What we know:
By secondary structure, the chain is of the alpha+beta class. It folds into 2 domains: 2-129, CATH 2.40.50.140; 156-304 and 365-473, Bira Bifunctional Protein, Domain 2 (BirA Bifunctional Protein, domain 2), CATH 3.30.930.10. Helices cover 35% and strands 26% of the residues. The relative contact order is 0.10. It is found in: Cytoplasm.
Amino acid sequence: xxxxxxxxxxxxxxxxxxxxxxxxxxxxxxxxxxxxxxxxxxxxxxxxxxxxxxxxxxxxxxxxxxxxxxxxxxxxxxxxxxxxxxxxxxxxxxxxxxxxxxxxxxxxxxxxxxxxxxxxxxxxxxxxxxxxxxxxxxxxxxxxxxxxxxxxxxxxxxxxxxxxxxxxxxxxxxxxxxxxxxxxxxxxxxxxxxxxxxxxxxxxxxxxxxxxxxxxxxxxxxxxxxxxxxxxxxxxxxxxxxxxxxxxxxxxxxxxxxxxxxxxxxxxxxxxxxxxxxxxxxxxxxxxxxxxxxxxxxxxxxxxxxxxxxxxxxxxxxxxxxxxxxxxxxxxxxxxxxxxxxxxxxxxxxxxxxxxxxxxxxxxxxxxxxxxxxxxxxxxxxxxxxxxxxxxxxxxxxxxxxxxxxxxxxxxxxxxxxxxxxxxxxxxxxxxxxxxxxxxxxxxxxxxxxxxxxxxxxxxxxxxxxxxxxxxxxxxxxxxxx
Length: 482
């Protein structure tokens, strides 16, 4: 860094800039490569261009110097700096002042070198931005921790890192486009909220000085989106960040991106079709309909299975489990399968946890896990024909939950009872229980139409199509301070 700072100083002393406001670029590196990719060896085009890029390779040999310039998308182009073209002073300055990692500008004719390398034979060059730190070496400097913590370095040197960024953008655009084409309206809802609700999760707490009011960051977008449906926006969605003050691991991040969508006169079955449309459109966009994993091949093209929680758990443990099965019996099953449970959990909570530990990891192909006990989703309506369960499903792909949906509970009387029960749990010390939201209940009391709603974890969708952990799919994930 000391040597590079000295070079910066020499640039300034000579009246040049180390960080000019701009350089006279006339072409991008990708456009030059696209136009002249098939150029024969030792051929000239007569086309004079001005290009700029980051120096990722340099070889200074006598009267002719070579450098590889890289554009932001990773496309590379060779620059040749010749004594005959730029003169002794400019050549000496190049050798003395340019380092790996610098952004430089070169203007010259597009040619092909004797070895057939597409190049710009420089007539002039200029510093575009002096790098004070060296480029990392791919295998020595870039361990996983560094790649995630200093993502800009990862993007500089690894094509795979840049591809994840572009693939994520392509998938999110596809999700949005699929819903818009089906008549959905995208809206934005508050991130700062007075009441935390819409999911069972621990919120981040903050304080609004203007009102001297304690607030939380949203844990879900659900309750405001439903207000919009009450108001007459019959198909509505939001793609946005939500925040949950919980654990951090390969599948969980404190802040992550979700899609939530609600449809008047829909139900859990119409929302199942919606999420299948979305995921298949994303599969088309990235060209992946069969995904190879350590646990087997995921086939998105086949029939997506439906599996009830109680029948699925019964089959896995070899005995019948029903809504009438006692907590004591379920704790015995947990002990048999080495599943750690909380003694305070009731039967419904135990069933959900046992299913998640024993059955869910085995579900590789897309499976709608349905007919949950009521406490699993306090905002879902009772099943229309099956007693003791609700109309809700989780979509499991590759042994992991990717999305959820239900036929929404719109009866304000029952909803109040459910939220009261949640509020009592919160008063008893359950940090994940929802609070009683009187504004949401007031909206329901104005009559919400029957509706279906779905939630899709965008980051987990990216994980499906990249095979990466959540820290790799979020561009700048939250990290512990160094």
